[in-house]
Amino acid sequence: MADPMYRLIADDLESQIDAGELAPGSRLRTEQELQKKYRASRNTVRDAVKWLIARGLVETRPGQGTFVLETVDPFVTTLSTDARKGSSEGAVYCGDKQVEPWATDPPQVEIQRADEGVARELGLSEGADVVSRHQQRYVGETPWSLQTSFYPMSLVERGAVELTRPHDIRRGTVQYLEETLGLTQAGYRDTITVRAPSDIEASFFGVPADGRVAILAAVRTAFDEDGTPIRVTATVYPADRTLFAIDAGRVPSRVPDPAAEPAESAPTAGQLPADAPARGG
Question: Within this chain, do residues 79 and 214 fall inside the same structural domain, yes or no?
Fold first, then answer.
């Protein structure tokens, strides 16, 4: 069956974007001009533009028109780390090159009351005092992630007072807690959800606030050797520039970039080989 007219228009415009004929920041023709060019109805042209918006290729600015978005080379972030280390990520790659993210210094440090989610992860009562340490993180000049770690106030009361000071703990909080309190991070649990960005996140990452570009929210809860939670770290990444890799066992250190392959060649959930049976058994 032939593709509907709006898809043919969208595919043609996408080809022009891919070829550089429509450069990032350039404005598409007006609706009337597109109608005339493609001999299509107003609704068909609008559906084509909506398709491009959904694919993150263009955005419509009220009163200005529709503009081609600049594509961002995705950062491949490895979430696998040594359980006894403090980093929430391992190596980060952009294409074939390993890159070094950096964070704002000093971090923003506050004493807060734990909301329901933080209290649940740390095994505290809702409203209990916790120390939060927040940083904005970049790769080069590109906003990469926002990260906030929460610690029970009991750790400060036991002597880990550097947690409350607005400076970077260079050796890492995991090593600091081990040296200061004898607490060893023995393991962690990660959960990842997808949602629309908050206004603050949309502003920092420079993405639309309407959810067209999703936010990947990763929460890591760390435990000591007795199974007591000692830290919960919430990190958010924009989906338009983030790919996650999780290593298990012996694998090459270099992570291939799936975005460098044609979309049709990438494996998708539910895909079956041509000769696969319809049902497993």
Answer: yes
Q: Does residue 258 sit within a domain?
A: no
Tell me how many degrees the CA angle 209-211-217 measures, rounded to the nearest 5.
100
**Euclidean distance between the first and the last CA atom of the chain, given in angstroms as a whole number:** 33
Q: Is residue 56 part of a domain?
A: yes
- Dist CA 49 CA 62 (whole Å): 14
Q: Mean pLDDT, consecutive 10-residue segments, the chain of 281 residues?
A: 87 92 93 94 94 87 89 81 71 86 92 96 97 96 95 98 94 94 94 95 89 91 96 95 85 59 51 47 41
For residue 221, the cross-strand partners are: 189, 232
Tell me the HSE value of 218 on the side-chain side, using a 13 A CA sphere.
22
Distance CA 261, CA 264 (A): 8
Here the CATH number for the domain that contains residue 24 is 1.10.10.10
Place of tokens 């597109």: 34
Say yes or no: 223 and 106 in one domain: yes
Which residue type is seen at 127?
G
Cβ pair 176, 151 in contact under 8 A: no
Q: In this structure, what token pair is assigned to residue 143? A: 């906003």
